[in-house]
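Hi everyone, sorry if this is the wrong subforum. Our group has a chain we'd like a structural model of before ordering constructs, and none of us has done structure prediction before. Sequence below.
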Amino acid sequence: MLRDGNMSSCFSRCWWCGKEAVYEPLESRAKGVVGAVQSSTKALVVFFLVLLSLVAFISSRWFDGTTFTMVTSWGQQPSRSRSRHYRSHSRPVTLTCPNQTTAQTQYCRRFTSASVSPSPSPSPSPLPIASSEPPPPSCPDYFRWIHEDLRPWRSTGITREMVESAQKFAAFRLLVIDGRVYVDQYHRVFQTRDLFTLWGFVQLANRYPGYLPDLDLMFNCEDVPTVKAADYKASPPPPLFRYCKDDTTVDIVFPDWSFWGWPEINIKPWEPLSEEMKEANERVKWKKREPYAYWKGNPGVSRHRQDLLKCNLSDGHDWNARVFAQDWVKETQNGFKESNLAEQCMYRYKIFVEGRAWSVSGKYTLACDSPALFVTTHFYDFMTRGLIPGRHYWPIRETTKCRSIKFAVDWGNKHQKKAQAMGKEGSSFILEEVKMDYVYQYMLHLLTEYGKLLRYKPTLPEQATDLCLESVACREQGRVKEFLMQSMVKQTSDSEPCDLPPAYTRRELEELRSTKAKAVKQVEKWEQEAWH
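Answer:
Right subforum, don't worry. Here is the predicted structure as tokens:
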């Protein structure tokens, strides 16, 4: 048993044996040894040599943490995740499409040569890390919300029945089994959200080959969260991944599709777009920008956006806002060529207002080096919980939008250094702490922690198909294909992911919520004093 290195199986069978039951065989063997010693000096020498070897062996195994790892669920078994003591070789990831149409399942099975990296790529040989090299840095603070999102299943784990109970909400089921990625698609969704979300999973598998544990999860691609905490007081809720949640729901938040591109409205993948926005910030400095608050978008998706249009310049009022409704018919015909987000950093202030639920526009609003004016938010995605009002953005009351926007702009134009500092804080957060390196690491940590909660070995559904670079990209054309290629991971990672920080304590959560609430109250107080 010791040769197998699996003491946990010994403990799981023998922990209930009393001390007498455990030690009785040892006493019997000891008597035999004593007899041998008395009859032979040679036997005595052999006995002590064997005893010393046994003590040395047990001691070495005692200090080897892996020997005493207790296996309590499938997800907690030693997996393909890397040890801190190894670094992977970085190697190129390539895509090769056939000349003729091929069934989706054949793409991933056909291209398995060394010249092509299917998802996931074979695990590269690890390189030892020098002992003097520092450990990976800690992940950004918003990673701590991973623990909170998974808290509903922390004590029970996640069973196959729980996962399958979420199917009624899901657009697809994603699985990782023995290092290969599969998808069982239930229905298509609005535009290409599902395609680019699945592409994100493929990129993660190629960026960190061999890191993903076995997984089985359901994914919803719609805006509004659906798993209400109040509906599951007596039992664990169905685990469902999606792009956002609110304080009443327990959906598991995951990076949205637009990080890999939104071709229908010509929003480029986040990595190249964020670089363009950095360049735009350098071209037009904050003081040279229009001294107003800017918003452009689709007002038809929510009453708050429709209400925002009232804050535009009119004969009677100038609320310091310049608000533009997107002409979707005209833009669609023109391929959204007039909607370059990097060219919208021409105003000192940018307004963010939610749509049907959360909106992908939050990251673009923050990236302009201009203070972001956030109209009261009710939903949040994976990273916006890391934002602090008064530091990263200026809070705007949803009930008095126009007046709040005017006060914010007046205040910023009067306190320009403070306004610029806030704009820089917001941009630094979104451009540095939410760069694609961290997006992938957030995905990896979330899925790894989720995998630890699984209480079963995932198996492949009948309708599931292989998911790899070729199966997603080879059939696509035009701007969809262009954005897939722009967002494709070109190299496997040559470094370890950041260290996941610990979960918030109850006291830390209370202090964080209190800090945010006080900052909002302070702004409201200033605003009230200015209008009276």
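For your construct planning: The longest helix spans residues 506-530. The longest strand covers residues 290-297.
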